[in-house]
Structures are given as structure tokens and as C-alpha cells.
Amino acid sequence: MIRKRLLATFALALGSAALLPQPGAAQTTPKRYIAFGDSITFGIGDDPNRANPGYPPRLEQLLNSRGVSATVINAGLSGEDTAGALSRVNRVLQDGGDFFLLMEGTNDINEKVSRETTLFNLDQLAARAEAKGLQAVHGTVPPRLPSANYDGNNHITADLAAGVRELAFSKQRRLADPFEAFFHGTADFTLLYTGGSDKLHPNAAGYDLMARVFADVLTNVDTMPPVTGVVNPADGETNVPNTTPVSLALYDFGAGIDLANTKLLINGQQVDTPLTGSTKKVEISYAPPQPWLGIITVGIHTRDTATPPNTVDRTLSTFIAAGTTFLPGDIDRNGRVDGFDLLLLAPAFGARRSDANFRLTADLNGDGVVDGLDLAILASNFGHSTF
How far is 9 from 15, CA to CA, in rounded Å? Predict the structure, then answer.
């Protein structure tokens, strides 16, 4: 009897063990990852003491620590745009691989290449990798510092990110989203950059984050909330026709969008609007029941179905309706003359048009100098609302 019990227990243990992940099972098939991009992939701005800069070596370490036998090739080339990338990608792909991690477009923005051209080139790059049997993974490019010479407000970079998200969705490719992780997922993303004269390249902490973003996507760890596509009217747009509908798209490349908890907000208030699409891509359109007036803010509240959910509560766009007028002194155009306007006027006080600190919107009487007369105009409307 004892012998029978031991045999039964041993058989049960063997059956249970067969159902468990076997140690080292994930290591049996090594994977080759090609990290393809420009100087941000190459690792410019990283810790100079690192022998192998950039996110690719960090990604290799992360993947191996998560049970993936990985070799990550750093195929970043400084100064490259997407057109230049097309001229060298075949050479990079000739040795083959399993994954093609594509993050490119920063230099296209610098060179003012059209968004459509950049997206076309990115699609061609991914398609060439797929033709060689690699799985293409798109990556959005990280934001640039506010002090950058071009696109310091990141409107163009955000617009490119929206296009890359749609490209990845439409071609059923994976997406790594450094733009979202840096710009919205970090309390102060400027701390992730080298600073000084360099406005584009991450520092060591930035490359650490970038590697985690790619590693999460490649190992199916869902830490990214739903992200937006193109939003209309665009942020900062002025003279918007009064009946223009608001439209936007939401994407989720992980667990999917929680549709029941997805709400559009206009000037901070939830509005009822239909959601069309799927849990992977939702399109939202809202026509104003009455003509727009003044400054309109468009926001979103949404989350995904991950456990725990990744949530978003964010203003997406602020635009000014056609025919809106502002009281003299409303320098920041927020609809009210207040202390914020005074703070904007103060640094320009005493400046003339030829001075570096001259601010045209602070020259309230248009006489070419910011002085006591302008301050008096602001004071006369202080505390009043524009509309």
C-alpha cells in the first residue's frame, strides 16, 4: 500500500512538472535584434564611461534578465534621416535576424521633411525587414528640449508620433513609444537629457528608460496607457471655424482600451459622444451643439484593461475659436487678465523692439517699447475676463 501511494505521488509530481515552465526553456532559441536608427539609437549623449552606449546594450541585458536569449545589434548611425536609412538598410539586414527595432525621424524633423514622406520611408524600411523574415517593431522618437532651435514645443514631434502609431496599427506591427514614456510618463522629461547645447539626445537615465520601453514591448509587459493619434483642431490652432468638430483617435498596443471608461472632455466637462472602432483603435468625433466661443480645451479620460490599468487624464488640445477677441493685457490669451500676464510682462519691461527680451504681446499699445504705459493698460483690465 505504501509503495502504491509513493508511485501515485511520484506520477502526480511528474505530471505537474510537465505543466510548469522548464528552467532555461526560453534560452534554447537565441534571438537576434537589430536596433536601427540615428544618433539616438547609436547612443550620443550617454555616459562617456560606458564602453557600449545607447539603449541597445541595455536592452540586451534586460531581455536576458527576463529569460530571453538575446543579442541586440546597435545599427544606429549619427546624422541619418529616413531617406539615408533606405540607402543602407539592405546592408544591415544581410546577416538576418529575428526583430527589426526601427526608431528614426528626428533628423527628418530637423531637415523639415514632410510627415508624409517620413512615414512612407519608415514603412518601406519596415517592409524590407519583413521581406527578410524579421518582425518589425516601430518606435516613436523621443521629444526634444523646450530650448531646442526647432520644434521646442514638440508639436511636430508629437504629430510624427501620432503618424507612427497609425502606421504600426494599420500594418499590424508592434509599437514601442519612447515619446509617450518621456513626454507624458515622466514628471520632468528634461532631466533625461544631456542638456547644454544638446537639445535632442538622452543622458544615461534617458537611455535606461528607452531600453525599458522596448523591453516591455518585446516581453509583453503592458506599462503603456492608450495613446493618441492626430487631434483636430490641433493644439495652439487659432481662428478655428465655430462649428468645426473635434476628432481624434486612441490606440492601445497592449491589453486594449477600456471603452466604458473612455470619455471626451470639453473645457473640463464630460460630453457624450459615440466611440467607433475596437479596443485597439477608437475614433472619437464631437460636433459642438452650439458654435464654439473663446478658448476651447479638449481632454480625454481613458484607461486600458491591463491589471492594474494604465490610465490617462490629459488635455490634448487648446484652440481659439474664430471671432474671439481678447482684452488688452491678456498676454497669455487664457481669457483673463491676471497675475500670469503680469509675470509675462515683467521680463520684457523696459525692452525695445531691438532688444532680445522684447515681447511683442507685452507691447500693449504697439509703440515699440514695453513700459509704464503698457503696465497701466494691463492694470486697467486686471481681474477682468476676456469673454
Answer: 10
Residue 336 belongs to domain with CATH number: 1.10.1330.10
SS3 of the chain: helix, strand, coil, percent, to 5: 35, 20, 40
Does residue 59 register a pLDDT over 50?
yes
- Classify each residue of 264-292 as buried b or exposed e, where b means 16 or more C-beta atoms within 10 Å of its C-beta: bbbeeeeeebebeeebbbbebebebeeeb
Do 99 and 208 lie in one domain? The reply is: yes
Same domain, 39 and 183: yes
* pLDDT tens column, 7-23: 343 343 334 333 333 43
Q: What's the pLDDT at 28?
A: 57
Domain identity same for 54 and 140: yes
CATH number at residue 154: 3.40.50.1110
Joined grid coordinates for residue 327: 482684452
Q: 35 and 174, same structural domain?
A: yes
Residues 6+ apart with CB under 8 A from 292: 240, 242, 243, 244, 321, 322
Helix (H, G, I), strand (E, B) or coil at 132: coil
